[in-house]
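pasting for ref. prot 1 ->
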Amino acid sequence: MPGIADQLFLITGLIFVCVTIITLVAIRTVEQRARRRRRFSTASIVGARADVDLVERERSWTGIDPGRLGLDAAAQRELRVTLMRAGFFSTSAMPAYAVIRIAFLIALPLIGLFVALFTAASWGVTERVALVGILLAVAYYLPPAYLSRRQRHLENRYRLVFPDFLDMLVVCVNAGLSLEAALDRAGRELDEEAAAFYANLELMAGEMRAGKSTGDALKALADRLGLPEARSFVALLQQTIELGTDVAQALTVFSDEMRDKRLSNAEEKAAALPPKLTLPLGLFIFPVVLIAVLAPAVLKVMATLPH
């Protein structure tokens, strides 16, 4: 039918245009990234990350102004912190996230419209509209859900690594290193599983080399980690620096408290385990055990009884 052919041509053309735009943006981003990497091949990655004006760097990096994507200054700062907590430290992360989200909002409803018009021909109007609406909702909530899940995963890893980092920091400070050198050395001594945690320490060191004060750099570190333990750690270091007290002694006391807190958290999780196991045991394991115990007796009774 001519009408169906025209609709198919229109939808195919729209999908082609969307894919072409996304591909061109991705190619441009990769080319500019490679050009910048060649230009600053001798520069430190940390120094490149520590620029003061992040918006200007993102505009020059990707050619995309985050303000043109409907994000004001407060929303940009909030999104930037969210992306950093999720482990995306690149300066192009915020424009790339906005482009990916727009691409999802365009591509998934178009796919649903194509399926509703041509694959599910027997569906009614309500089913087709529902399919497009569901895909639109999925496209809207999927990127934030992914960031939230990745952020929770990294926070759990940070929470596991943080006590070991404190112990290593205490050793480095007691060995005579300065606070900045001890932070860098303690981060480098961690294993490969703490790479994301060390990336936050690298970024903090780059900010300090760029001229940011130690207190502000520590506050930014606590915001990126998103842990109550990190905020307490930063508050302790700030008070220690301002009051001029012994850093090693303060870190030793704080490390002991963190170790006790980790032990108490483990005991709480162990105490909460039996109630959580009650429902699975009652629904799945107990019926199986009951059948295994009673099945032989039931079979013998059935065999002895007359038909």
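and prot 2 ->
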Amino acid sequence: MSDRATPEGGVKFLVAAAVVLLVAGCSADMQDLHRYVDEVKSRKQGEIEPLPEIRQVETFVYVAGERRDPFTVEVEEEAETAGGAGGGVMPDLNCRKEELEGYALDSLRMVGTLELSGTQWALVKTSDETIHRVKPGNYVGQNHGQILRITETAVELTELISDGQGGYQERQASLALTE
């Protein structure tokens, strides 16, 4: 039986073959490499164009004078905008919404009045045919409408309408008796 048939013989053969390949690969004969390097060095080299000349740009200094800086927000300006053109009226956005504030004012109809314990109440019908009882001070409609007065023929209220500048304006509105 030969040595290569045993596991130890196979390993010895592989190690010997690897050593022979390494020694043959590391020979001192590098004439091909030297010839290639010489050929590359002898090629004509291209010229690199000089960098373009950088032109000096004249600086411009903007003098605003008394004008405000457009890149800063002034605190006074914010305070004016918060009040808006409506004289500073703002709805209370933190209060609990009443049920009729979920309906548009034009979808509500006054259908009657009644008086209980000296308080005048109005009966208001919604678009889904539900009748609600309201009194002065209640809120109706989607524009923060507060009921000011109830008569036998109408519910008078004040709405707060956004002025488009972060503020609100008051607008008078009413629900007239129908049916």
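The chain has a mean pLDDT of 83.
The beta strands are 109-116, 119-125, 131-134, 139-140, 145-150, 154-162, 168-176.
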